[in-house]
């Protein structure tokens, strides 16, 4: 009987807890239903084992079957659980969680890039969407920011009124002025209007075509205009507005306004080419037909 057949007539250990690689070289006689006596598949010798222990099996291979012992040792090393499956990583993970929790509770320094990014975003929201500054004191807005970034601590509305929004205005104005300086020619539109509370304002918008043939326009100002709306006052106000933006009048192709007599007078006084608004003139024409 060769070694292979002698090994095959031994049955493997029963049960789901056979995890040790050493059982590849040991088994039981088929008649040993209770699997009481462990036998070596190589030399057929019985090997005593303690309850669930495989120490004697490893010793038997090491002392009597060197080649099989080396193979068994190699397999055992390969089947060892990686360090990531053991306890220390759990501790590391717990430590990492505590570190993250701690870092989330530490507010950003006001010099940190992330703090500036969040503050600029709040200021942009106020300016772009034209919401009241007190919006930032509402509980819903505060909760939204805390959810977005727990480390960001919102400053008072006084800071946004006196610092953040004026700074954003200055930065934006410089960018717009730089682009207008590159325009060879431009036109403007202006209008007088009243708010819901009947406060008077005057707006001035510049239009030009850039080097890539794209139409650009910027609202240069919307200023409170409580003075009497005479042609002279309007004309001086528009001249001052262009001067504040360092826009040369010779580069201004024309000015579009409504057909009000005060606007017509202001354009003549400034000696500017005047283009009356088509929509306004059409509205007046329809009114005269009634």
UniProtKB/TrEMBL annotation:
<dbReference type="InterPro" id="IPR036236">
    <property type="entry name" value="Znf_C2H2_sf"/>
</dbReference>
<keyword id="KW-0805">Transcription regulation</keyword>
<dbReference type="GO" id="GO:0003677">
    <property type="term" value="F:DNA binding"/>
</dbReference>
<keyword id="KW-0479">Metal-binding</keyword>
<protein>
    <submittedName>
        <fullName>ZBED1 protein</fullName>
    </submittedName>
</protein>
<feature type="region of interest" description="Disordered">
    <location>
        <begin position="72"/>
        <end position="92"/>
    </location>
</feature>
<dbReference type="InterPro" id="IPR003656">
    <property type="entry name" value="Znf_BED"/>
</dbReference>
<dbReference type="InterPro" id="IPR012337">
    <property type="entry name" value="RNaseH-like_sf"/>
</dbReference>
<keyword id="KW-0804">Transcription</keyword>
<keyword id="KW-0863">Zinc-finger</keyword>
<feature type="domain" description="BED-type">
    <location>
        <begin position="17"/>
        <end position="72"/>
    </location>
</feature>
<dbReference type="GO" id="GO:0008270">
    <property type="term" value="F:zinc ion binding"/>
</dbReference>
<dbReference type="InterPro" id="IPR052035">
    <property type="entry name" value="ZnF_BED_domain_contain"/>
</dbReference>
<keyword id="KW-0862">Zinc</keyword>
<dbReference type="Pfam" id="PF02892">
    <property type="entry name" value="zf-BED"/>
</dbReference>
């Amino acid at each position: 009987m060769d070694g292979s057949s002698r090994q095959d007539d031994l049955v493997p250990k029963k049960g789901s807890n056979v995890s040790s690689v050493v059982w590849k070289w040991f088994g039981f006689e088929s008649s040993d239903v209770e699997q009481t006596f462990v036998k070596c598949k190589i030399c057929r010798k019985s090997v005593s084992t303690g309850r669930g222990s495989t120490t004697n099996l490893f010793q038997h291979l090491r002392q009597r079957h060197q080649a099989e012992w080396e193979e068994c040792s190699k397999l055992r090393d390969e089947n060892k659980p990686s360090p990531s499956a053991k306890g220390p990583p759990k501790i590391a993970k717990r430590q990492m969680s505590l570190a993250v929790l701690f870092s989330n509770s530490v507010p950003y320094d006001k010099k940190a890039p992330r703090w500036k990014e969040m503050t600029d975003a709040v200021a942009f929201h106020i300016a772009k969407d034209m919401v009241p500054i007190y919006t930032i004191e509402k509980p819903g807005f505060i909760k939204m920011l805390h959810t977005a970034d727990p480390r960001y601590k919102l400053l008072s509305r006084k800071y946004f009124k006196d610092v953040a929004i004026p700074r954003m205005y200055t930065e934006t104005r410089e960018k717009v002025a730089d682009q207008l300086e590159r325009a060879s020619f431009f036109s403007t539109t202006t209008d007088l209007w009243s708010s819901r509370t009947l406060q008077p304002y005057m707006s001035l918008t510049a239009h030009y075509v850039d080097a890539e043939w794209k139409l650009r326009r910027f609202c240069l100002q919307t200023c409170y205009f409580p003075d009497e709306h005479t042609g002279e006052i309007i004309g001086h106000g528009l001249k001052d507005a262009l001067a504040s933006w360092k826009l040369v009048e010779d580069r201004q192709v024309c000015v579009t306004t409504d057909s009000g007599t005060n606007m017509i007078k202001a354009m003549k006084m400034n000696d500017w080419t005047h283009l009356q608004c088509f929509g306004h003139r059409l509205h007046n024409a329809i009114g005269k037909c009634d």
